Amino acid sequence: MPQRALVLERAWLALVFVGFGAVAQTFFWGIVGPATMDRLGIGASEFAGAVGLATLAAAILYLALGPLVARLPAERALAVGLLAAGLALVAAPLAPTVAAFTLAFVVLRLGARHVLSHAVEMRMSEERERLGGFGAQLVAFGYPVSILVVAPALVAAAAILSPGDLLAVAGAATLACGCIALVRAAPQKAAAAAAAAIAPIRASFGAILAEPRFALLTLGYAVPFAVDTVALLFHTRLAPTIGSVPLLTLYALGQVTGGVVAHWAARRIGPAWLVLAQAPALALGAAALWIAGEAAAPVFFALLGLAIAVSNYAGVASWQATFGHEFLRTALVLRGVLAMAASAVAAALAGRWFDLDGGADALAAMTLALVALVAACGVAIPRLGPRRDPSARGSERPSERTVA
User: Fold this and answer.
1) Does the predicted TM-score (pTM) go above 0.70?
2) Which residues, including other chains, have CB under 8 Å from residue 2's CB and lie 6 or more apart?
3) Of residues 221, 380, 367, the one with CA closest to residue 283
4) ∠ CA 256-261-265, rounded to 5°
5) DSSP reduced 3-state for 388
6) 333-338: long-range contacts (C-beta < 8 A, 24 or more apart)?
7) β-pair partners for 320
8) What does the alpha-carbon distance between residue 165 and residue 19 come to, in Å, rounded to a whole number?
9) Which residues, 6 or more positions from 280, have their beta carbon under 8 angstroms from its beta carbon?
10) Residue-level pLDDT at 398
């Protein structure tokens, strides 16, 4: 691939993954959410319930639609994800009821989060040799970079445009990008390898659900994920005088730092102990928020970002060390669905607390209580020995410390 074409390909993937992937992220709707609540005449609990239900529904739908998406060439799947997200963004501000908004949000999450992420990962896999380490860097740092770039731009645009116009502009830009992806996909042929990569997912559900380590890893991941969803969805109400940009900037920098820390820690203590490593950051952040209230919100968001980065790394590294690459995608899909279910419940409860003007204290108390679960999982996981491969071929996987 010529150097200019390589630069353009990297820029295209970064634009899609970092820029347009942000429209389905929780921080995006944490910024535009208050205006949506006012337009629909609903409280925080109803809004959080709609977002949580739509997120869970999209994850469950993707279990069925994933094999169909995998049969598409990567660029065509990109076009499908972008066009679906663009239509949902245009429809969201026009939704007359909460049910209609929830339906639009299901399409948005499905297109911009699941289909788009899968397509970008497949594209990076197809071009691994030519893109080099760019793909891994994009996956590792794409989300915090998205926050650092998109959040200030979104806040600045919100000062000029109404929320409905802002979503319409974002939807039009996403649709235009989807049309570009559709044109780029015209010469591509269906990729049988992509379909083969996702085909075994549903076949191995039972074996993975029967593994005790999976339940512990999922619980250890779901707790910080639920706290993260609540904090980002209601960050404008947690610290109204501080504003979105400082809080989200510290959160993103915490994620970058957490990724580096997790990589360093995994080499020295093994990936199994990384689940326990989340607990101190969550506990310190929640304690600070409990004691100092809004003044400690920057500290809480920085430590939350660090904990989330460690959580993401811990889930992938520990499961890969347990079963290897063969069942990693299946485990992550199942874990994502269960974690989203937990975050949907937590968001609905937190929305009720915010309606009662007890959001910051309630979030701190909830986090402190749930840290005990994270710590318990983190202590139990390393004590479980290696198990046999779920394919029942009789081969033993090496221990985590050896694989790590």
Assistant:
1) yes
2) none
3) 367
4) 155
5) strand
6) 333/62, 333/63, 333/66, 333/201, 334/205, 334/208, 334/209, 334/214, 334/218, 335/214, 335/217, 335/218, 335/221, 335/222, 336/59, 337/56, 337/59, 337/60, 337/63, 338/218, 338/222
7) none
8) 18
9) none
10) 37
What is the CATH number that goes with domain 1-199? 1.20.1250
CA dihedral 13, 16, 19, 21 (to 10 degrees): -120
C-alpha distances (whole Å) from 212 to each of 34, 110, 218, 219, 269 are 41, 29, 10, 11, 21
Task: Say which amino acid occupies 365.
Answer: A
Residue 233, amino acid: L
The torsion angles phi and psi of 365, rounded to 5 degrees, stand at -65, -40
Alpha carbons 254 and 299: distance in angstroms, whole number: 10
Lowest mean pLDDT among 72-86, 109-123, 248-262, 326-340: 326-340
Task: With a cut of 60, say whether residue 165 has pLDDT above it.
Answer: yes
Determine contact, residues 382/270, Cβ cutoff 8 Å: yes
The CATH code belonging to domain 201-404 is 1.20.1250.20
Domains 1-199 and 201-404 are alike in CATH topology: yes
Give the pLDDT confidence of 266-321 residue by residue, as tens digits: 677 766 677 777 888 888 988 998 888 888 889 999 998 888 887 777 666 666 66
Of 258, 226, 272, 303, the C-alpha closest to 382 is: 272
Q: How far apart are the first and last CA of the chain?
A: 34
- Residue-wise pLDDT for 371-382, tens only, equals 887 777 777 777
275 touches 341 (CB < 8 A): no
> Would you list the domain boundaries of the chain?
1-199, 201-404
| pLDDT computed for residue 112 by the predictor | 83
Highest mean pLDDT among 10-24, 80-94, 209-223: 80-94
